Amino acid sequence: MAILYRYSKVMKKFYVYIMSNMTDTTLYVGITNDLIRRVSEHRTYNAKSFTSRYNCHKLVYFEVFASNSAAIDREKQIKSWSRLRKDLLIDGVNSERLDLIGEIATSGLCPSSQ
Q1: pTM
Q2: 2 part of a folded domain
Q3: What does the pLDDT look like over 31-79, one tens digit per residue?
Q4: Which of 32, 59, 73, 108 could lock 38 by a disulfide, CB 3.0 to 4.6 Å apart?
């Protein structure tokens, strides 16, 4: 059991995530290998970025993948969807549109939280 645990810590994880603004009128879909770091970068207010321009600083959805290629495929799939379909995806797991970053930071799902 200890070997499996150590091995899983070295395995890279990839995340497809959705950020929203406070009024949930704008969504941003992205991919990263460190969700906490990436959300933090979105919140630094780089004036030229989409998330800063539209104030998308709330993490409302994410999925975890073992491979970069699977995560990229899923990101492309979600980006191609209509707004309604993205809303249904988010509402299926986070209907109140709460900021999930607090849960992530304490769950051990991201490298930054370990």
Answers
A1: 0.83
A2: no
A3: 999 999 999 988 886 767 888 888 889 999 999 999 999 999 999 999 9
A4: 32
